[in-house]
Design goal:
39% of the residues lie in helices and 14% in strands. It has 410 residues and is α/β, with parallel strands linked by helices.
Length: 410
């Protein structure tokens, strides 16, 4: 299913289903009460994370998972995700593949069929705690509620005009659009260990971003050597001693307005190639191959390596570990690069780096910060009315090039 179709289904069917589930839960809690209040000293063995979409933001959950493991040392993590996001969970290194439960989204029938089967198996697993990690998605809230977990944590609009997603969480938390997403995820764990009676959760200070523990990619020298060899197998004429600059010129179909004009990426690459010690590496998914071929054709020469659609996610991460810089639109790769020390320049427009900026050393965000930006948020299901991404076009090639040279200095 396309993102627009999923949004429409969520907006039309979601509210009445959430209302019915809220009534159902009110009745059930009178006869079979769940665990409310602080879970700090409660026996929590199995924890389910409902995070169906957005591979990149999965990386931002690492500090949350580590904190949960501190509180409940013997806890077992499970994830419920869309099938295409399995690899993102693997990157965290904290969740066995057997604990990743997937739902296919190729069409509505398959989605419903998989969701039903997963809910049956998840109910049988008897989870102690479920986190709904989507800020205002009704579908994820519905799935979380129907897992039958003894306690649940998710976002509630309270008195806000935000999107309605029911009132069935034992630990409802208020979404704060003024703190980074990694801090928001971490605050959910803190919320479930707070004393009972607090409205809304969570009344603790967010941990500073520079103090958050980040996931790290572990690679072998053999993997890194294979990554280098794959580059020069693709482009044998490229000088092997050159520095490697990644250009990731696309973004997911979820918010296509996040894309910097392809002509700007071409011009930036052309000016970077004026330095003979630089090779350009193009990355992306197979569906982005036509755009990458257009970039490669425009650049010409023998110092452009087109790896678009030719790596697995793991191979792409290893590639990051041997390169010197990446320039990318606001998309998953900027967060994947947080697993490495690769310097990254991320270009922001419809969204804001204050919430979704990549974490780690030498992760730079550039934004024109127009008055209308950011226009994409959890409050509008990332379905902006914008018909012209002037915020992206306002980012100049000169500004990005200056930052490139700063990060490439020895």
């Amino acid at each position: 299913m396309k993102p627009d179709t999923m949004r429409k289904i969520d907006a039309t069917l979601g509210p009445p289903i959430c209302a019915l589930l809220s009534l159902r839960r009110k009745i059930l809690d009178r006869f079979w009460p769940r665990r409310f209040g602080s879970l700090a000293d409660a026996p929590v063995g199995k924890i389910l994370m409902v995070k169906p979409a957005e591979m990149g933001s999965t990386v931002l959950m690492y500090a949350m998972l580590k904190r949960a493991r501190e509180i409940w040392p013997d806890c077992e993590f499970h994830f419920l995700v869309f099938a295409e996001n399995t690899a993102a969970v693997d990157m965290l290194g904290l969740v066995p593949r057997a604990n990743v439960h997937t739902i296919r989204t190729s069409n509505l029938f398959i989605f419903a069929w998989d969701a039903l089967h997963r809910l049956i198996s998840l109910n049988l697993a008897e989870f102690d705690l479920v986190f709904d990690l989507e800020f205002f998605s009704r579908a994820s809230a519905i799935l979380a509620e129907l897992t039958g977990a003894r306690s649940s944590c998710g976002f509630n609009r309270f008195t806000m005009e935000g999107l309605y997603k029911g009132s069935f969480f034992t630990h409802p938390i208020q979404y704060n659009p003024h703190i980074h997403t990694a801090q928001t995820f971490l605050s959910m764990v803190e919320a479930v260990i707070q004393p009972a009676g607090q409205i809304p959760l969570n009344k603790t200070a967010p941990k500073p971003l520079d103090e958050l523990e980040l996931a790290k990619l572990s690679t072998t020298p053999e993997e890194q050597q294979q990554a280098r060899e794959s580059l020069y197998h693709e482009a044998p004429a490229c000088p092997r001693e050159n520095r490697l600059v990644i250009i990731n010129a696309n973004s997911s179909e979820l918010v296509p307005l996040r894309r910097w004009p392809l002509e700007n990426f071409i011009e930036l690459s052309r000016r970077l190639l004026e330095k003979p010690e630089i090779n350009i590496v193009l990355t992306g998914t197979m569906s982005e191959r036509p755009e990458s071929e257009r970039v490669a054709a425009a650049l010409g020469g023998n110092r452009v390596i087109n790896m678009v659609g030719k790596t697995t996610l793991r191979q792409l991460l290893v590639l990051y570990s041997v390169c010197d810089l990446m320039i990318t639109n606001d998309s998953g790769p900027s967060h994947f690069a947080s697993l490495t020390d690769l310097p990254v320049i991320t270009l922001f427009g419809p969204e804001t780096p204050r919430l979704y900026g990549a974490l780690g050393k030498n992760k730079i965000a550039i934004s024109a910060e127009l008055a209308c930006s950011p226009c994409v948020s959890s409050y509008n299901h990332r379905a902006t009315a914008c018909n012209d991404n002037a915020c992206m076009r306002a980012i100049s090639v000169d500004d990005v090039l200056i930052t490139c040279h700063d990060l490439l200095r020895p």
